[in-house]
Structure formats: structure tokens, C-alpha cells
Amino acid sequence: MRKTRTALTVLAVSVAALTGTTTGATATATPTATATPTDSSAPSRAAATPCTVPDAFCATNSSGDQLVLYCGESARMPWSGVGYWDNRLPGGGTVKMFDYYGSVNHFADADSGPTEINWSLVWSMRAYC
Fold first, then answer.
1. Which end of the chain lies in a sparser environment, N or C, as judged by fewer CB atoms within 10 Å?
2. What is the reported pLDDT for 88?
3. Cβ contact 67:84 at 8 Å
4. Is residue 89 within 8 Å of 71, Cβ to Cβ?
């Protein structure tokens, strides 16, 4: 019986962590890169359009879409694949990125980035200020 209780506790904590990260930011499509997909010498959209938003955490995907978090906000990661993040939250703010099970698998230090990341490994994220 003890194993069952432990498993239920872990499940409840994981669900609580994931449902606690469903408010706040939303992803928006804001492609601004001028490179064409057929131009093999052109940089990717994520590299061509750095996502730097003052006083915020900004994430991009390879299509140039952006997800912006401000202090105390959280969001589910709507993308998979490679992208970038840039953390400019005020007051030394950090961001924790969680996997499917609610465990922290990436951490954005204060005033860091842009950093390349595989969004397929990130399920949700939360900004702490």
C-alpha cells in the first residue's frame, strides 16, 4: 500500500506543477526574418530574429514565433524542435523550464541568453522575480 501512496503523491505533485503553469503568456506568430526557406546560405529565422524583450523572458522557435513571460507568469510550451531563449527579467529574475513530469530540466539564469534549446524537452515554464 505504501508504494501506491507514493505513486499517487508523485502524480499529484506533477499534475499540480503542470496545472500551475497554465496562466500568463501566450505564443504569438511574429516572423520578421527576410531569409527564404529555399536559401541554404540564409540563417534560420530564430537566429535571424533574436528575441530580446526588455524586462521579460522571451522564447522563439525556428519559425520566428515568440513566447514572452513577465514576472510571475507561466505558460505551456506550444512548440517542439530547436529555438532560442533570452532572459531579461528585472531584479535578477529567473525562469524554470519543466519536463512532462514536472521536473526542472532547464534553468534560465538572470540576464542570460540568447541560448539555443530543444523545446521538445520542455513542457512548461515559469518566471520567478
1. N
2. 96
3. no
4. yes
